[in-house]
Design brief:
Blueprint: H1 3-24, H2 60-68, H3 74-78, H4 82-85, E1 89-92, E2 99-102, H5 119-122, H6 149-152, H7 174-179, H8 186-193, H9 229-232, E3 235-236, E4 239-240, H10 268-271, H11 279-283, E5 293-298, H12 308-320, H13 331-337, E6 346-351, E7 355-360, E8 366-370, E9 389-390, E10 404-418, H14 435-438, H15 441-452, E11 460-470, H16 484-487, H17 505-508
Parallel strand pairs: 5-10, 9-11
Antiparallel strand pairs: 1-2, 3-4, 5-7, 6-7, 8-10, 10-11
């Protein structure tokens, strides 16, 4: 299909769809005045705290006690948030029907895998001091265990000890940090969120150290317009809006419409797409704009001696050749492996402690329907499926009018799995006796089972897993947004069949024209 014919078809589809939308879309959807600056929150000018602190502090809690003399409710507010409790989600185990409360403290991921038994390393990013082990009770901890500086430091030199259970690094000047406090910044938020998963750019794909001072081509909001995290992730009583993959619609979701008009383009044909396509689908055409992000983490390859580059090369060569090293490698990852050595945007890294990594930059997202909620694979949950274990699958389908096509980074990996009980396992990696020092998987799994409360039969194997991350940041200038032919026509980036369409909607019509929406839940429909 030529671009000329495609453009004509799109125009016809837009005209046909507009007749339907005029009936069912609320009037607010036709709003065209887009003035996002007027909708940004107004923050009071920060108070200069330099004169309030004159004597050195012995430790972090001493700073907090001083803060609380003027802000007596602050610690109580923080202790009611997920940043403090590392809990807040709720789910139901598919195998037992048991209701489970979960959060960072007890869920599984396919990066560092889990917090239990690895506390001092993992809790170096906790918004508090001294979460040494499972005996720490966030609800009962003293108020002075809240870390005010990790969010409010303005000196630029405050840092946590990477193995210190949240305590400040020994080289930090606590007096200088206290005298500098003010509003949170990209730097303070990024201290943990840019380095989630153990290092810069590991986890999210759309958050890394380039976002401290990004050029426009990386992120137009934080670059050209100078926004801070809190401009979108607005807080009230220290409760910050925005949960990455919530299991329920709790009303805290951050939306483009918080600042932008519901129909901001001034072009009805484009604005009609917003009924099925998220803003980020067009405005985040790629992720990991400059810094490579991890796309694959294979723990089963850990423990090998030798030159790391040589080990990685041997694994990649055997995988590409169809050997045993690639037994659990899914097609999407195999396609990246085939580009290693010829594509400067794709590389591997080997670490004896952690296994094989595959990293990539400027990656095209994978697209899935998403209604703003998801499921979580819960600790100890049995999995008898054939494919990869889905750790946080998004909810949504073509027939759901609340769902939109959303761009995701999909991180895939291999991690320990109980061959008899059929569930993922928690390894003890950090600290005395952990895998990183003993290089003994059996010992690591036995100790991890004791710490996590997840049963272990004594018979382990390896299992591939999949975890998704919606790409909400690294929004590009509008001149770099996707065009019609990026998605429609031959060679378009969207897999229409996988998304539930009978074919390219530019030819066959959108969800409404194709009769794909659930009739009973269509906006304006009568039951």
């Amino acid at each position: 299909m030529t671009p000329r014919v495609l453009a004509l078809l799109l125009g016809l589809v837009g005209l046909a769809a507009s007749a339907f939308v005029a009936v069912v879309v609320p009037a607010t959807a036709h709003e065209t005045s887009d003035a996002p600056r007027e909708r940004l929150p107004r923050f009071p000018e920060p108070t200069d705290h330099a004169a309030y602190f004159t004597r050195p502090f012995a430790d972090g809690p001493a700073v907090t006690r001083t803060c609380l003399t003027c802000h007596p409710d602050a610690a109580r507010e923080v202790k009611g948030t997920a940043h403090w409790t590392w809990q807040g989600g709720h789910g139901v185990r598919s195998d037992t029907g048991e209701a489970v409360a979960f959060g960072k403290r007890n869920v599984l991921n396919n990066f560092c895998i889990a917090v239990p038994s690895n506390w001092p390393r993992c809790t170096s990013c906790h918004a508090g001091y001294g979460w040494e082990d499972a005996s720490f009770d966030p609800a009962q901890a003293a108020d002075d265990r809240v870390d005010c500086l990790v969010c409010h430091d303005g000196s630029g030199q405050y840092a946590k000890d990477p193995q210190g259970a949240g305590r400040p690094d020994r080289g930090v000047d606590l007096l200088a940090a206290a005298r500098s406090v003010g509003r949170s910044s990209r730097a303070t938020c990024g201290t943990c969120h840019f380095k989630g998963g153990g290092g810069d750019a590991v986890k999210h794909g759309d958050l890394d150290e380039t976002m401290r001072f990004p050029p426009d081509r990386v992120d137009v909001h934080m670059g050209r317009h100078g926004l801070r995290c809190a401009d979108c992730h607005r807080a009230e009583g220290h409760r910050i809006r925005g949960r990455l993959m919530p299991t329920d619609a709790d009303g805290t979701r951050v939306r483009c419409e918080d600042c932008h008009a519901a129909a901001p383009h001034g072009d009805e044909r484009i604005d009609l797409h917003l009924r099925a396509v998220a803003c980020t689908t067009c405005h985040v055409p790629t992720f990991a704009a400059e810094t490579p992000t991890k796309m694959w983490w294979d723990w089963s390859k850990a423990g090998r001696d030798g030159d790391p580059e040589a080990v990685a090369h041997a694994i990649v060569a055997d995988t590409v050749a169809g050997g045993a090293e690639g037994r659990l490698v899914p097609p999407a990852v195999l396609a990246l492996f085939r580009r290693v050595g010829t594509d400067p945007d794709v590389s591997t890294h080997y670490d004896k402690k952690k296994g094989l990594f595959l990293l990539a930059r400027e990656q095209v997202p994978e697209y899935r329907w998403y209604d703003g909620t998801s499921s979580r694979h819960l600790p100890g949950e049995r999995f008898d499926g054939d494919g990869p274990v889905p750790l946080n699958p998004p909810h949504g389908r073509v027939g759901d009018p609340a769902a939109r096509i959303v761009p995701f980074k999909v991180h895939r990996g291999v991690q320990p799995f109980d061959a008899e009980l059929r569930h993922l396992l928690v390894p003890h990696t950090f600290g005395p006796g952990g895998y990183w020092s003993a290089f003994d998987w059996e010992r690591a799994l036995v100790d991890g089972a004791k710490a996590s409360g997840i049963a272990y039969s004594g018979h382990s194997t390896w299992r591939s897993t999949e975890m998704v991350w919606p790409q909400n940041h690294m929004v590009r200038p509008k001149t770099e947004a996707l065009r019609c032919t990026d998605c429609h026509g031959d060679g378009g980036r969207l897999d229409w069949a996988a998304l539930g369409y009978p074919g390219d909607p530019a030819v066959r019509g959108g969800r409404v024209a194709a009769g794909l929406l659930d009739v009973a839940t269509r906006p304006g429909a009568t039951r």
